[in-house]
Amino acid sequence: MIGNYRGEWINVLIHGHMMDTLLLLALNGLIWGLIIALIALGLSIIFGLLDIINLAHGDFFMVGTVLAWFTLELTGNFWVAFLIVPLIGFFLGALIQRVVIQPIRNVAALTIVATFGLSLILQESVRISFGTTPRRILPPIQGTFPMFGINYEIYRLFAALIAIIALAGFFVFLHRTKLGTWMRAVRHDRETAIAMGVPAQRVYVMTFGIGFALAALGGVVAAPITTVEFRTGVDILPFCFMAVIIGGLGNLPGTAVAAVLLAFLEGIIQSFADPTVARISSLLLMSAVLLVRPQGLFKGLTK
Do 212 and 60 form a contact (C-beta atoms < 8 A)? Predict the structure, then answer.
């Protein structure tokens, strides 16, 4: 009888541990999805307005993490990075659009080659200046918070809050400001917008700058969660493309929802399978969407 009770108690402990692991990975996936949504939105607006498949976008995120590390090293204050790094990203993006993208904007094949080359340049520049050794940034907010029966890191909750505020702020900007209206007008009907006096060239520059800034902000938010190294963006880029495709090409709300959904699903799958299996599942979902609903799962969110 004692043996039976002991066996039941062990089963209860194992079941409880599995549920805690599932909940932890699901929360991690949800929060990571909110961060990815920031990055994927930048990729989506660049594609939607400029018709450019930006293969360097993952490295924009990587630059954000590295700049956050340098900001912490130089100032001793991580919070400053939330202001400085997106601004640097915006100006770098605007410069890249004028110098690299604008001369070849109407030649799709050249833009793919150019952004691939830009990706290599960014990676090698960071490798030379930052080094090849992965670094870690300690979370600026220490401690855990009890929720759903587990102790969860406070900084991850803060990261989710920042991502939600940034996402909401972006959509308010898009629908409540003159520049946002110009961006939507150019995205929906470029020729008519230009004929009505919208400064398309300025919109292109601002759009690329905002895309870089969103990715860089995502890098700052994620820096204390992930490792900081010159290859960080390599894994981010495919995930962003999957979110853009599943959400619908040029569909900004759909892209954000798809990013959160994908990361959440991968988090759940990782609780009982290898991370590689989780990524394969996302790729299979993307393939299914392309075959069954090529316009994306969230077409209705476009307006």
Answer: yes
Domain shared by 137 and 78, yes or no: yes
Q: Which domain, by its residues, includes 275?
A: 231-303
47 or 161, higher pLDDT: 161
- Cβ count near 108 (within 10 Å): 12
Same domain membership, residue 291 and residue 214: no
Residue 200 sits in the same domain as residue 247? no
Strand partners, 153: 144
- Stated as kind and residue range, the H or E segment containing 295 is none
Q: Does residue 6 lie in a domain region?
A: no
Distance from C-alpha of 159 to C-alpha of 112, rounded to nearest angstrom: 32
The whole-number average pLDDT for the span 254-272 is 85
Whole-model pTM: value is 0.88
Are residues 295 and 178 both part of a single domain? no
Tell me the C-alpha distance between 45 and 209, whole Å: 11
The answer to whether position 180 is within a domain reads: yes
Strand boundaries in the chain, DSSP class E: 144-147, 150-153
Measured CA distances, 284 to 54, 113, 191, 213, 235 (Å) = 23, 27, 37, 30, 17
What DSSP state is assigned to residue 21? H
Residue 63 has pLDDT above 90, yes or no: yes
182 and 283 together in one domain: no
Q: Are residues 249 and 123 in the same domain?
A: no
- The tokens for 27 are 């929360």
Overall number of domains in the chain: 2
Q: What residues have CB less than 8 Å from 4, skipping those under 6 apart?
A: none
Q: Which residue has the tokens 């993006």?
A: 93
> Is 90 exceeded by the pLDDT of residue 173?
yes
Q: Look at residue 228 and give its three-state secondary structure.
A: strand
Instruction: Say if residue 206 is in the same domain as residue 65.
Output: yes
Give CA–CA dist 272/292, Å, rounded: 28
CA distance 37 to 61: 12
